[in-house]
From TrEMBL:
It comes from the Bacteria. The gene is der. Keywords: GTP-binding, Nucleotide-binding, Repeat, Ribosome biogenesis. GTP 1 binds at residues 8-15, 55-59, 117-120. It comes from Carnobacterium iners. One of its GO terms (biological process) is ribosome biogenesis. InterPro entries: G_ENGA, GTP-bd, GTPase_Der, KH_dom-like, KH_dom-like_a/b, P-loop_NTPase, Small_GTP-bd. Belongs to the TRAFAC class TrmE-Era-EngA-EngB-Septin-like GTPase superfamily. EngA (Der) GTPase family. This is GTPase Der.
Length: 435
């Protein structure tokens, strides 16, 4: 999907505009463990065109001086985005910081749209004229808080999207990526996996953008593609300067993957960033496997595995379906299990359940735990059917979708999971009114 990046100095209203563009998507996604809180990256859509939106202002560049921060943010946008939206603020007119950002953006060949925020009513439109001096073309007057002008801006933005890229692999090829903080051992695991005697590495291709994909076949002839998070093999100064930036790289890889291996470092335990990235994989409907690396470094007793599993289950509550594997890239412990687990999860993602069988499960579930009622009215479930795979997605037709509470939907999900093997994959349950 194309990427739109928002840049601009602090307090011009970037996050308000981000939320406007993302719209209700944020609220429809369940916010468990703060996955959707203070997000800087989200999927969004305009006129049927889907894209990813990054608020570079949210990228935490640590203690860098102010001007360096906005400079890096602009550089990240230039590197990552297909279209850049540069936001300024009519109340402050053109500031030195705006000019600085503009100067950096001159260097890019990518389309830059200049938006002037806080133009809250048509009488204020005259105030945008100063902004022509930034030399970035016609300014777009917008109001993040009133939602004005955003449509025109997005029309222009999607007009600049590149031609759609074809996915370059066959559907039978299993695409996976390893994500995790720097130094958890992603590269070591990959090298060890690819170094396995029975693995045939058939090609290393520079494909989409700067990602480096590695294709290989296991001893059963299953084809895999390892999608590199790019940052792993190509590290530049900006890349290293921020962990959040590597999050964005990871998100790119997640998007192209069927299965995501969330790599944790056994020595360090679970960090906030691990949860964030794993949360994105979950939201994107990808298969997820939790890989605890550096297992060799721990002094273990009978409870080590159990304790670690318990921590993972409580910290990653929304990933209750994800298998956990304890490995060591150094001793190669259990590394040979990874391909078969990836394969299993990928198969589960593509599972299709017959409607008749599914409806039996739903009927049993309802008999066991009656549907909620409200003011004497009961939620009625008419039937359910699977409408998609990757991730398996079910539509439940009911008399009144409002009455399908999260807890009941979760109950149905659990019943479905108890009956069918959906290990490693999120499943989605949508509720629709029967016409
Ligand atoms: P990446 O940044 O996630 O790709 O991490 P690397 O693969 O570069 O590994 C970071 C460091 O951890 C290197 O010094 C590795 O040798 C070390 N390392 C990786 N895996 C293991 C492991 O399983 N056990 C131990 N003890 N060290 C590991």
């Amino acid at each position: 999907k194309p990427v739109i990046a928002i840049v601009g100095r602090p307090n011009v209203g970037k996050s308000t505009i981000f939320n406007r563009i993302v719209g209700e998507r944020i609220s429809i996604v369940e916010d468990i463990s703060g996955v959707t809180r203070d997000r800087i990256y989200s999927q969004a859509e305009w006129l049927g065109k889907e894209f990813n939106l990054i608020d570079t202002g949210g990228i935490d560049l640590g203690d860098e001086p102010f001007l360096d921060q906005i400079k890096y943010q602009a550089e990240i946008a230039m590197e990552e985005a297909d279209v850049i939206i540069f936001i300024t603020n009519s109340r402050d007119s053109v500031t030195d910081a705006d000019e600085n950002v503009a100067k950096i953006l001159y260097r890019t060949k990518k389309p830059v749209l200049l938006a002037v925020n806080k133009v809250d009513n048509p009488d204020m439109r005259a105030e945008i004229f100063d902004f022509y001096t930034l030399g970035l073309g016609e300014p777009y007057p917008i109001s993040g808080s009133h939602g004005l002008g955003i449509g025109d801006l997005l029309d222009a933005a999607i007009g600049h999207f590149p031609e759609e890229e074809e996915e370059e692999y066959d559907d039978s090829v299993i695409k996976f990526s390893l994500i995790g903080r720097p130094n958890v051992g992603k590269s070591s695991i990959i090298n060890a996996m690819l170094g396995e005697e029975r693995v045939i590495v058939s090609s290393v291709a520079g494909t989409t953008r700067d990602a480096i994909d590695t294709q290989f076949t296991d001893n059963e002839g299953t084809e895999f593609v390892m999608i590199d998070t790019a940052g792993m093999r190509k590290r530049g100064k900006v890349y290293e300067s921020t962990e959040k930036y590597s999050v964005m790289r990871a998100l790119r890889a997640i998007e192209r993957s069927d299965v995501v291996l969330v790599v944790l470092n056994a020595e360090e335990g679970i960090r906030e960033q691990d949860k964030k990235v794993a949360g994105y994989a979950h939201e994107a409907g990808k298969g997820v496997i939790i890989v605890v690396n550096k297992w060799d470094t721990l002094d273990k007793d009978n409870n080590t595995v159990k304790d670690f599993e318990r921590d993972i289950r409580s910290e990653f509550a929304y990933l209750s379906y994800a298998p956990i594997v304890f490995v060591s890239a150094v001793t190669k412990q259990r590394l040979n299990k990874l391909p078969e687990i990836i394969k299993r999860v990928s198969e589960n993602q593509r599972l299709r359940i017959q409607s008749s069988v599914l409806n039996d499960v739903i009927l049993d579930a309802v008999a066991m735990n009656p549907t909620p009622t409200d003011k004497g009215k009961r939620l009625r479930i008419f039937y359910a059917t699977q409408v998609a795979i990757k991730p398996p997605t079910f539509v439940v037709f009911v008399n009144d979708p409002e009455m399908m509470h999260f807890s009941y939907s979760r109950f149905l999900e659990n019943r479905i999971r108890d009956t069918f093997v959906f290990e490693g994959t999120p499943i989605r349950i949508l509720t629709r009114q029967r016409k």
